[in-house]
């Protein structure tokens, strides 16, 4: 009988490929709502903040112009791309005896695994926002970000509530004020505007009351709800692990949370000659992190 090398996995591959990517594309994504999504062609990417110039200096007649130099923030943030992969095998016997769609469920499970991996790796940045040190030596959300400019301004700077608090009218107003009064390392106003309130599902009801009530929530007075004019949208993240933590974020163009694709998700197949199994694998490479803290305000909750 003539041989047909590799025919088993190739016979299954087109159908399983369709199932894999059709299912993968059905999952709603959350990470891309807050991270700047970029592509990379190298093993790693490096990023840093550039501190701007100071305020202009008054120049009297005949005096020389004062010159200033932009300052690069201390240290570079390196994004090293990691590979993530997983696979499954289909035995010859399973293929011949599969009467209940077991094979078709395998690529569905693999696509779910890929989706969850992307999300959990990305949201780990916020889940660790109060513990994992960034480029400036402190966590993403902290009360003691150092001033890195040569011509130091006031500092240290804060993007975390001085007293952690659950989501409420008072705490949300404090967080908005904290973001809107953020300055750069030369103490120049940078006019940050919060656009998104990121919350755990447990906080959804409180967020809706705070942002969508016509009158001020939780009072008997006929006061307007001043938060309605902030044009602030809430986003429920199903990957936040702390039920009390919440975050304010600017538009993506105004913050430094980045996700780099080195190799987007692929689905491949091959045959195992000795066992007769068909092997299928999914693989991707990416990195995720933050290069700076401005544009994010957070609290762990009470």
SSE diagram, text form:
Blueprint: H1 7-26, E1 36-39, E2 44-47, E3 50-51, E4 71-72, E5 77-80, E6 82-90, H2 92-97, H3 102-127, H4 169-180, E7 196-199, H5 204-212, E8 233-236, E9 246-249, E10 257-271, E11 278-290, E12 296-299
Parallel strand pairs: 1-10, 7-8
Antiparallel strand pairs: 2-5, 3-4, 6-11, 7-9, 9-12, 10-11
Helix pairs in contact: 1-3
Could you characterize the architecture of this molecule?
- With 302 residues, the chain is of the alpha+beta class.
- The chain has a single domain (8-49, 80-299), classed as phage-related protein like fold (Alpha-Beta Complex).
- It is built from 5 helices and 12 strands.
- It has a 4-stranded mixed sheet. The protein has a 4-stranded mixed sheet with strand order 8-7-9-12, covered by helices on one side.
- Helix 5 links the parallel strand 7 (196-199) and strand 8.
- 29% of the residues are buried.
- Residues 1-6 have low confidence and may be disordered.
């Amino acid at each position: 009988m003539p041989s047909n090398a590799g025919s088993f996995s190739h016979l299954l591959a087109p159908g399983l490929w369709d199932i894999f990517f059709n299912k993968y594309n059905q999952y709603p994504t959350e990470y891309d709502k807050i991270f700047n999504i970029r592509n990379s062609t190298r093993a790693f990417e490096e990023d840093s903040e550039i501190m701007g110039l100071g305020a202009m200096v008054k120049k009297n007649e005949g005096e020389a112009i004062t010159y200033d130099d932009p300052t690069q923030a201390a240290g570079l943030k390196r994004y090293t791309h990691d590979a993530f992969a997983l696979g499954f095998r289909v035995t010859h016997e399973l293929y011949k005896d599969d009467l209940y769609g077991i094979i078709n469920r395998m690529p569905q499970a693999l696509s779910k695994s890929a989706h969850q991996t992307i999300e959990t790796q990305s949201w780990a940045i916020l889940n660790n926002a109060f513990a994992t040190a960034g480029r400036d030596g402190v966590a993403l959300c902290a009360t003691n970000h150092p001033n890195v400019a040569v011509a130091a301004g006031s500092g240290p700077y804060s993007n975390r509530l001085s007293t952690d608090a659950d989501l409420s009218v008072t705490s949300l107003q404090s967080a908005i004020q904290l973001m809107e009064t953020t300055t750069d390392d030369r103490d120049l106003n940078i006019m940050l505007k919060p656009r998104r309130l990121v919350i755990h599902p447990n906080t959804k009801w409180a967020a809706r009351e705070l942002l969508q009530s016509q009158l001020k929530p939780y009072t008997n007075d006929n006061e307007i709800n001043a938060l309605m004019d902030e044009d602030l949208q809430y986003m429920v993240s199903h990957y936040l692990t702390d039920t009390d933590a919440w975050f304010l974020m600017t538009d993506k163009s105004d913050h430094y949370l980045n996700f780099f694709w080195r190799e987007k998700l692929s689905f491949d197949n091959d045959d195992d000659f000795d066992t007769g199994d068909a092997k299928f694998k999914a693989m991707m490479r990416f990195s995720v992190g933050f290069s700076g803290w401005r544009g994010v305000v957070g609290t762990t909750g009470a």
